[in-house]
Known about the structure:
- This protein is mainly beta.
- Helix content is 8%, strand content 52%.
- The chain contains 2 helices and 15 strands.
Amino acid sequence: MSKPFKVNVNSAIDFDISEAESAQLNSIKISDNTYHILHDNRSYKAEISSIKAQSKTIEVKINNNTYNVDIYNELDSLIKDMGFELGSSKLVNEIKAPMPGLILEINVNIGQEVKENDTLLILEAMKMENVLTSPRTGIIKSISINKGDAVDKNQLLIEFEG
């Protein structure tokens, strides 16, 4: 029994296709990136424009219409359901307090460029100093707290530009 792949076309159409179904596809390779496909007695010319292996995305032109196709296997789907994504860049735009505490030190200013893992601030919680570092390279857009402020869990502390 073959396991299905989840396929998404142009971020709009979702469907499942099994390994067996894909193996039964009537296709002939014409060149390195061009195929002739027969499906339901109809002929299609498929040209692969680009393949992004890390994100499992293929741009394919079928009869001169371009489609962006994302392919996910069972593991990819499980990882996505858990809230993680392989190969995704860190797009964190907000730093929120991971726990209630007291702001001991703020190491950045608005407009400052920071690199991934640079120290942003120190939060004291349960008599421990917690260093919060930058999850990505970026520019500080706003700082919502001041040194000495008491903060609640999930309170916005720092925001990055775009």
